[in-house]
Amino acid sequence: MRTPLSAIALSMLVGAFVHAQDGVDFTGRWILESPSSASAETPRALSVRQSLVTTNVRGEPMRPFFKDITIEREIEGSTRAETHQIGVVGGVVGGLGTAGRHYAVKWDANVLVFESGSYTGQSPETGVWTERREAWSLDSDGRLQVVITTRSSRDTPRTVPLVYRRR
């Protein structure tokens, strides 16, 4: 009788552990499902890995969170890899002859948002500037929804929704 109760208790703890983590796990291989809105620069496939942190620097258990995300984007015969620290906001202030830049990778509820931009003026959206926002979420069918919005001082805003299915 003790073994089945132990197994039930263990499965409940594991379930609680998984649900307590911050963010959504996008780990896996994703294939583009919505090519009609795709351009030549749109990745046809994504390979994603996220690092889950479960202990602090002393090895003690803590509330799990996703520390970083590595994305391999397959675009027309080539692959581009990038790794982002999640929860990081930063940038460089523009000055004499240098452009300012800013970036952020952060959770907005269950949506992972990647933001970046540059500007030649004194602050964002001044001088010649560009901004890019990429929002990742899972829909009710488990598909990856990626919404890319670009804005700049030279072009009209553009939003491209993409849908990927897990392979």
Textual characterization of the structure:
The chain is mainly beta. The protein is built from one helix and ten strands; from the N terminus they run H-E-E-E-E-E-E-E-E-E-E. It has a ten-stranded antiparallel beta sheet. Residues 1-20 have low confidence and may be disordered.
Give a concise summary.
This protein has one helix and ten strands. With 167 residues, the protein is mainly beta.
Structural topology:
Elements: H1 2-20, E1 28-32, E2 45-55, E3 61-75, E4 78-85, E5 88-92, E6 100-108, E7 111-119, E8 129-138, E9 144-152, E10 158-166
Antiparallel strand pairs: 1-2, 1-10, 2-3, 3-4, 5-6, 6-7, 7-8, 8-9, 9-10
Structural class: mainly beta
The Cα radius of gyration reads 20 Å
Could you say which overall geometry the principal axes of the C-alpha atoms support?
Answer: globular
Residue ranges: pLDDT <50 for 5 or more in a row? 1-20
Strand ordering within the main sheet: 4-3-2-1-10-9-8-7-6-5
What does the main sheet amount to?
10 strands, antiparallel
Distance between the termini: 41 Å
Beta-strand portion reads over 45%
Key features of this structure:
167 residues; mainly beta; 10-stranded antiparallel beta sheet; 1 helix; disordered N terminus
